[in-house]
C-alpha cells in the first residue's frame, strides 16, 4: 500500500493546482475566441461537457509523447520505438520513419513468448494456414474449432480445475462473466484496486458493490460481517450470494494478493471467491501456475479462477476455470460465449504451445528455465532498485515493480530521459492510477539478460541523479521549478 | 446521561410559565398582580421598575422564582381561597375543562417523543447471523437436455468445413466476403506473425501500439472517408466501451428495442436515461423524439443520442438511415451506428449503410463495427470525427484498459480492406447469393423470412410461435441439428443469453457468403424445407 508523504502530497497537489490554473486560463481565452467565431453546431450539446475532457486537453496533451509510443517490432526484450515529432504543439504527434532500438521494460512479456519462438511460431503459422485468422462466428455457432476445445482442456489441467472456458479478450472475460454469476440481490465485494474490467463487470451485473481496503483480509472480514448482518439495503433480506473478487498480482502495485488469508475469511463467511490471475498466471509459482501455487493455496478453494493469455503466453484472450457445473452454466448464458466472435485460432494455438513449453511437454526444459529466469530477474532488479533508494512497491517474486513518482512533472521527465538513454519504461498516471500516485511501472521479462538489467539500472541511476536530485533536496524552490520548467518546456500548445 | 436529561428539564421549565399564567387567569388568582410583577419584569409597575435584564438573566430569574415560589402557591390555590373564589364566582365548568385540555396539550407537546433505544448488534448476534446465512449456489442448476456441446470444426470455417470427419456446407459463419482461407490474407498474416509475434503484450498506451495498428486505423478511415478511426481488440467490447465513453448520467439515449446484447450492455453501463422505440419503426422513433424534446428546454443542454444497428443481428432488418438522419437533424440528436454486419457488405463498394443510402458519412456522428464478420479477422473499430476518436483514446475503458489487438489481426484487416477495394465483384457475388437464397426460402413450410432482402443474415422465424421463447428455440435447434446430421448442412438457431433483454422472436439464422455456390444454396434450401416440414408438422 502506498503511503503518500505529507510534503510530497503538498507539492503534488500544488503542481496539479498550477496545471489546473493554467488550463483554466487557457480555457477562458479559448472561450473568448470562440465567442467571436460563428458557432457551427447549433442545438447540440457539446460532445464533451465542461470539465469532462479538461484533464485530456490541458494536462495529458502536454505529455502525450510519453504514452502510446508506437513500436515497429515484436515487444521482445529489445524493440524498435518509432520516433515521433510535433510541430510546436504536442496536440498532434507525427510519426517519422526513424526508429530507435530500446530496452523494453514496459511490455507484459513475462515469459518471453512475445517474439517469434522456435517451438510456438511454426505451430501458430501452421494453424493459421489450416484455420485462417478467424472463424467469423460465435463459439456456440460455428466458432468452436478443435483448437478451442483442446485449449479449454489444457487450461483446466494447467490451473488445476475440473473445467474451463476461453474467450477472445481478457477484458471482456471479466466484464461479461461477472453478470452471469451474480445479479440483483447479490453482493460483490471487490478489492479497492481491482482492474477496470472487474469494475465494469460488477456494474453491469446489477448486484450491490462494496469495496474493501486493498489487500486487507481484516477489513474484508469487517465488511462481510457488516453486510451479512445487515442484509440487502432497504429490504434487509439476506443476500442471495456474496462474491469476493481479488487479483493475483495487482497490475499497478506489483503486490501479491494475500490469498490464503482472504480464502480463509471467505470460507468462514461462505462467500464465493473470484480470483483474477491476469498478471500472475504463468509468471509466478514453481511451475508457472500462478499465485495459488506460489502461496500454497489449493485451487479447489477458489471458486472462479480467471486469467488472461495476453501476458505470460504472448497471445490474446482470457479464460475462466471453475467446476464443471459453473462452466456449463457459462456456456449456456455468457454473452461473450454466445455473441462474440470466437478467439482467433492461431492465437489459441500460441497459448496451447506456450503452456506446453511451460509444462515441458515440448520435449525441452525451456519452460522451467524461463520460470527460473523471470524469478531471478525480478528479484535481482527489485533488490538493486531498492538499494539505489527508489521507492519500489510490490512483493518479491512479482515481475511488476512500480517506482513512485507522485509529481506530475516527473512523469515526462523520467519517461523522456529514459527513452533518450534507450530504455523504454512505462509511466502511469491518471486514469490508470489515482491522480496523486503517478508512477513508473517496470515489467521484467524472462528474456532480459543480466546485462540488460544492469544497463537498465545504470540508466535509472543516471536519470535518478538528473531528476530526483531536485525533489530530494527538499528545497521548496527547486520543487517549484520542476513543474514550471515543464510547463514552459512543453511548449505553447494550440488550444482547442 | 447528564447531557441527555438537560433538555427535558429545560422544556418543563419553559412550559411552566404559560401553564401557570393560564391557570391563574382561569382561576382568577388574587395574587396575580404581585406575582406577575415578580416573574414578568418586562411589565413595569409604577412603584419600582426593576432594572432591565438581559434575556438570559431574566429567564434564569423566572426559573429560580418558579422553583421557589410556584410550589407553595399551587398548594395555597388548592386549599385556601383559590377554590372558594373559583366556585364562588360563577365560572362555567367548560372553561375548566378547556383549560385542563390546554394544559394537557401543552404538557404533551413539551414531552420528548419516544424513540426506542438503538442498540447495535452485539458481536455474538452478528456471529449467529453469519452462521445462519446460507448463500445460493454460484450457478443455477443446469436444465435437463440443455444443448451445451456445440459442433466442433476440424478445418477452417469457410463455405465448406469439416465437422465430425464429414464435409459440411457452412451457413453458420458470417464470412460474408468469403475471405476465410484467402491466400493473400494468410500470407500477409504469416509475415506479420514472423515479425511481431502473436500478442502485443500491452495496452495501446504502454507500448502496445504497433505500427500496423496505426496503418489499420488509417486504412479504415480512408476507406470510409472519415477523418480518423480507433481500433479495439474485440468486436463486442467496441460498442459497450464507446457508448459509456460518450454518454454519461443525465444524457438521453433513444435506442431500438431490438439491439443486441453488447449495445444493451453499453446502454446500461452509460447510466444514461434510455428510451426504447419499436423495432425499426420510424414512426415510433419520431414519436419518441418528439415526446422527449417538445417543450423540454433542458433537453437542449444535455447530450442526446440515437443508437441503432445497421443490420440487426437479432432480426436481419436494415435500419432506414435516410429517415434516421432526417429525424436526427430535426430533433438535434447524434447518431451512434453499429455496423458490425453491414461494413464490407452494404453499399456499392461495401462502405456500409451510409453508402447504401447515399447519406454523407459525416452525418453519422459515431460508427462502430466489429471486424469479425466481413473482414474475417477479429477486433473492432470506431470511426468519426477527430474529436470523437481522440476522446476515446483516454476515456474508453475497453481501449485504455485492454491489451491491444494482436498485430497479425490488424494486418489481416488491412489486407481484407485492400482485397475488397481491388475486387468489388465479390460484392456482386454476395448479393446474387443473398437474392437467390431469399427466393428459394420464401416458401419454407412453418418458417417465414423476417430479414431485409439485402441482409446477408437470412433470418427465419416461426410462422406460429408457441408463445414460449424456450420452446421456439428448442424446435429451431432441433431443425438445425437434424439438418447438420442428415444433410451435412451447418445452420444455426439464434440462441439467447439469460442476460439478453431483447424481446424479438428467435429464429434460424443463415449467414450467406460470397463463397457459396448455387448448389450450396439449393442444398440448404431443399434440406431446410424438408426438415422443417417434418419437425414443424404440428405448427404449420
UniProtKB/TrEMBL annotation, chain A:
Q: Where are the transmembrane segments?
A: 6-25, 476-492
Hydrolase listed as a keyword: no
According to its UniProt entry, the protein's GO biological process terms are: ceramide biosynthetic process; sphingosine biosynthetic process
Entry keywords, A to Z:
Endoplasmic reticulum, Membrane, Pyridoxal phosphate, Transferase, Transmembrane, Transmembrane helix
* Named cofactor requirement(s): pyridoxal 5'-phosphate
Concerning InterPro entries, the annotation shows: Aminotrans_II_pyridoxalP_BS (IPR001917), Aminotransferase_I/II_large (IPR004839), AON_synthase_class-II (IPR050087)
Write down any Gene Ontology CC term: serine palmitoyltransferase complex
EC number in record: 2.3.1.50
UniProt name for this protein: serine C-palmitoyltransferase
Q: Where in the cell is it found?
A: Endoplasmic reticulum membrane
Which species is this UniProt entry from? Answer: Zizania palustris (Northern wild rice)
Q: List the molecular function annotations (GO) for this entry.
A: pyridoxal phosphate binding; serine C-palmitoyltransferase activity
Q: Give the catalysed reaction(s), semicolon-separated.
A: L-serine + hexadecanoyl-CoA + H(+) = 3-oxosphinganine + CO2 + CoA
- Broadest EC class assigned to this enzyme: transferase
Similarity comment text for this entry:
Belongs to the class-II pyridoxal-phosphate-dependent aminotransferase family.
Automatic annotation (TrEMBL), chain B:
Any keyword Electron transport? no
Q: What coarse category fits the chief subcellular location reported for this protein?
A: endoplasmic reticulum
Q: Pfam family of this protein, just one?
A: Aminotran_1_2
Location(s), subcellular: Endoplasmic reticulum membrane
Task: Tell me the cofactors it needs.
Answer: pyridoxal 5'-phosphate
Domain of life where this protein originates:
Eukaryota
Can you name one GO molecular function term for this protein? Answer: pyridoxal phosphate binding
- Family annotation (InterPro entries): Aminotransferase_I/II_large (IPR004839), AON_synthase_class-II (IPR050087)
Membrane-protein topology:
Single-pass membrane protein
GO CC list: endoplasmic reticulum membrane
Catalyzed chemical reaction(s): L-serine + hexadecanoyl-CoA + H(+) = 3-oxosphinganine + CO2 + CoA
In the Enzyme Commission scheme, what number(s) does this protein have?
2.3.1.50
Q: Which UniProt keywords apply?
A: Acyltransferase, Endoplasmic reticulum, Lipid metabolism, Membrane, Pyridoxal phosphate, Sphingolipid metabolism, Transferase, Transmembrane, Transmembrane helix
> Domain Aminotransferase class I/classII large: where?
167-524
Q: Name one GO biological process term.
A: ceramide biosynthetic process
Pathway(s) annotated for this protein in UniProt: Lipid metabolism; sphingolipid metabolism; Sphingolipid metabolism
Whom does it interact with, and what assembly results? Heterodimer with LCB2. Component of the serine palmitoyltransferase (SPT) complex, composed of LCB1 and LCB2.
Q: What's the stated role of this polypeptide?
A: Serine palmitoyltransferase (SPT). The heterodimer formed with LCB2 constitutes the catalytic core.
Family the UniProt entry places it in: Belongs to the class-II pyridoxal-phosphate-dependent aminotransferase family.
Name of the molecule in the record: serine C-palmitoyltransferase
Amino acid at each position: 500500500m502506498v503511503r503518500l508523504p505529507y510534503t510530497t502530497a503538498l507539492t503534488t497537489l500544488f503542481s496539479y493546482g498550477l496545471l489546473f490554473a493554467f488550463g483554466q486560463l487557457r480555457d477562458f481565452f479559448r472561450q473568448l475566441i470562440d465567442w467571436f467565431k460563428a458557432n457551427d453546431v447549433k442545438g447540440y450539446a457539446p460532445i464533451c461537457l465542461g470539465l469532462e475532457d479538461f484533464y485530456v486537453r490541458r494536462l495529458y496533451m502536454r505529455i502525450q509523447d510519453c504514452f502510446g509510443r508506437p513500436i515497429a517490432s515484436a515487444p521482445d526484450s529489445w524493440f524498435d520505438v518509432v520516433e515521433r515529432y510535433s510541430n510546436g504543439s504536442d496536440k498532434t504527434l507525427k510519426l517519422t520513419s526513424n526508429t530507435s532500438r530500446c530496452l523494453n521494460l514496459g511490455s507484459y512479456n513475462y515469459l518471453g513468448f512475445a517474439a517469434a519462438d522456435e517451438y510456438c511460431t511454426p505451430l501458430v503459422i501452421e494453424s493459421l494456414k489450416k484455420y485462417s485468422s478467424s472463424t467469423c462466428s460465435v463459439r456456440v455457432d460455428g466458432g468452436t474449432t478443435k483448437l478451442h476445445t483442446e485449449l479449454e482442456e489444457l487450461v483446466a489441467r494447467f490451473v488445476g480445475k475440473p473445467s474451463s472456458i476461453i474467450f477472445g479478450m481478457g477484458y471482456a472475460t471479466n466484464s461479461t462473466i461477472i453478470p452471469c454469476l451474480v445479479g440483483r440481490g447479490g453482493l460483490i465485494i471487490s478489492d479497492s484496486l481491482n482492474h477496470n474490467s472487474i469494475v465494469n463487470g460488477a456494474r453491469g451485473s446489477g448486484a450491490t458493490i462494496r469495496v474493501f481496503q486493498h489487500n486487507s483480509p481484516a477489513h474484508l472480514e469487517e465488511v462481510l460481517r457488516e453486510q451479512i448482518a445487515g442484509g440487502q439495503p432497504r429490504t434487509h433480506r439476506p443476500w442471495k450470494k456474496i462474491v469476493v473478487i481479488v487479483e493475483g498480482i495487482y497490475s499497478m502495485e506489483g503486490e501479491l494478493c494475500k490469498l490464503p488469508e482472504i480464502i480463509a475469511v471467505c470460507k468462514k463467511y461462505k462467500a464465493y471467491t473470484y480470483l483474477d490471475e491476469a498478471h500472475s498466471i504463468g509468471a509466478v509459482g514453481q511451475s508457472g501456475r500462478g499465485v495459488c501455487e506460489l502461496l500454497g493455496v489449493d485451487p479447489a478453494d477458489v471458486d472462479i479462477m480467471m486469467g488472461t493469455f495476453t501476458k505470460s503466453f504472448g497471445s490474446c484472450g482470457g479464460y475462466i476455470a471453475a467446476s464443471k457445473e459453473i462452466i456449463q452454466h457459462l456456456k449456456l448464458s455468457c454473452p461473450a460465449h454466445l455473441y462474440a466472435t470466437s478467439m482467433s485460432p492461431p492465437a489459441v494455438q500460441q497459448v496451447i504451445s506456450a503452456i506446453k513449453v511451460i509444462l515441458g511437454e515440448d520435449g525441452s526444459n525451456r519452460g522451467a528455465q524461463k520460470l527460473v529466469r523471470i524469478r531471478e530477474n525480478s528479484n535481482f532488479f527489485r533488490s538493486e532498485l531498492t538499494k539505489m533508494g527508489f521507492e519500489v512497491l510490490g512483493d518479491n517474486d512479482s515481475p511488476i515493480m512500480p517506482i513512485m513518482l507522485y509529481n506530475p512533472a516527473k512523469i515526462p521527465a523520467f519517461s523522456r530521459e529514459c527513452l533518450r538513454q534507450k530504455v523504454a519504461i512505462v509511466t502511469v498516471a491518471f486514469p490508470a492510477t489515482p491522480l496523486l500516485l503517478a508512477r513508473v511501472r517496470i515489467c521484467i521479462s524472462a528474456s532480459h539478460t543480466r546485462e540488460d538489467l544492469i544497463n537498465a539500472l545504470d540508466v535509472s541511476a543516471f536519470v535518478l541523479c538528473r531528476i530526483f536530485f531536485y525533489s530530494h533536496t527538499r528545497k521548496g524552490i527547486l520543487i517549484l521549478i520542476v513543474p514550471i520548467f515543464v510547463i514552459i518546456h512543453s511548449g505553447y500548445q494550440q488550444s482547442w | 446521561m447528564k447531557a441527555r436529561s438537560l433538555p427535558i428539564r429545560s422544556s418543563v421549565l419553559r412550559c411552566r410559565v404559560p401553564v401557570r399564567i393560564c391557570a391563574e387567569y382561569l382561576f382568577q388568582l388574587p395574587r396575580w398582580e404581585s406575582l406577575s410583577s415578580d416573574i414578568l419584569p418586562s411589565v413595569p409597575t409604577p412603584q419600582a421598575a426593576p432594572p432591565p435584564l438581559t434575556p438570559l438573566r431574566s429567564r434564569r430569574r423566572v426559573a429560580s422564582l418558579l422553583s421557589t415560589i410556584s410550589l407553595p402557591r399551587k398548594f395555597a390555590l388548592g386549599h385556601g381561597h383559590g377554590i372558594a373564589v373559583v366556585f364562588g364566582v360563577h365560572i362555567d365548568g367548560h372553561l375548566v375543562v378547556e383549560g385542563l385540555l390546554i394544559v394537557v396539550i401543552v404538557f404533551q407537546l413539551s414531552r420528548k417523543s419516544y424513540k426506542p433505544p438503538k442498540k447495535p448488534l452485539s458481536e455474538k448476534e452478528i456471529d449467529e447471523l453469519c452462521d445462519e446465512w446460507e448463500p445460493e449456489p454460484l450457478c443455477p442448476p443446469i436444465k435437463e437436455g440443455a444443448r451445451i456441446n456445440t459442433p466442433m470444426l476440424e478445418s477452417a470455417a469457410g463455405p465448406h468445413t469439416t465437422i465430425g470427419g464429414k464435409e459440411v456446407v457452412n451457413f453458420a459463419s458470417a464470412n460474408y466476403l468469403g475471405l476465410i482461407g484467402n491466400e493473400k490474407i494468410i500470407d500477409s498474416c504469416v509475415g506479420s506473425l514472423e515479425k511481431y509475434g502473436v500478442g502485443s503484450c500491452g495496452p495501446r498506451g504502454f507500448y502496445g501500439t504497433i505500427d500496423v495498428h496505426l496503418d489499420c486505423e488509417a486504412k479504415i478511415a480512408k476507406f470510409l472517408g472519415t477523418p480518423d478511426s480507433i481500433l479495439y481488440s474485440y468486436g463486442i467490447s467496441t460498442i459497450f466501451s464507446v457508448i459509456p465513453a460518450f454518454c454519461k448520467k443525465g444524457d438521453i439515449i433513444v435506442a431500438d428495442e431490438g439491439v443486441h446484447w453488447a449495445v444493451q450492455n453499453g446502454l446500461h453501463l452509460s447510466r444514461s436515461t434510455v428510451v426504447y422505440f419499436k423495432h425499426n419503426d420510424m414512426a415510433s422513433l419520431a414519436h419518441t423524439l418528439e415526446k422527449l424534446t417538445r417543450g423540454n428546454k433542458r433537453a437542449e443542454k444535455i447530450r442526446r443520442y440515437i443508437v441503432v444497428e445497421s443490420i440487426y443481428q437479432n432480426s436481419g432488418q436494415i435500419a432506414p438511415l435516410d429517415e434516421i438522419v432526417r429525424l436526427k437533424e430535426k430533433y438535434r440528436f447524434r447518431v451512434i451506428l453499429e455496423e458490425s454486419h453491414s461494413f464490407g457488405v452494404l453499399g456499392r463498394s461495401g462502405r456500409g449503410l451510409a453508402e447504401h443510402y447515399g447519406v454523407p458519412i459525416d452525418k453519422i456522428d459515431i460508427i462502430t463495427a466489429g471486424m469479425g464478420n466481413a473482414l474475417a479477422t477479429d477486433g473492432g473499430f470506431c470511426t468519426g470525427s477527430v474529436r470523437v476518436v481522440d476522446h476515446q483514446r483516454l476515456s474508453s475503458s475497453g481501449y485504455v484498459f485492454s491489451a491491444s489487438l494482436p498485430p497479425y489481426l490488424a494486418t489481416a484487416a488491412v489486407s481484407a480492406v485492400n482485397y475488397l477495394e481491388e475486387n468489388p465483384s465479390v460484392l456482386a457475388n454476395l448479393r446474387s447469393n443473398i437474392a437467390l437464397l431469399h427466393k428459394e426460402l420464401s416458401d419454407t413450410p412453418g418458417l417465414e423470412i423476417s430479414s431485409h432482402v439485402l441482409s446477408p443474415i437470412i433470418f427465419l422465424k416461426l410462422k406460429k410461435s408457441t408463445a414460449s421463447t424456450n420452446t421456439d428455440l428448442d424446435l429451431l435447434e432441433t431443425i438445425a441439428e437434424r439438418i447438420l446430421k442428415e444433410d451435412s448442412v451447418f445452420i444455426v438457431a439464434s440462441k439467447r443469453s439469460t442476460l439478453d433483454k431483447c424481446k424479438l422472436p428467435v429464429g434460424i439464422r443463415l449467414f450467406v457468403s460470397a463463397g457459396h455456390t448455387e448448389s450450396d444454396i439449393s442444398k440448404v434450401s431443399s434440406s431446410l424445407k424438408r426438415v422443417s416440414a417434418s419437425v414443424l408438422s404440428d405448427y404449420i
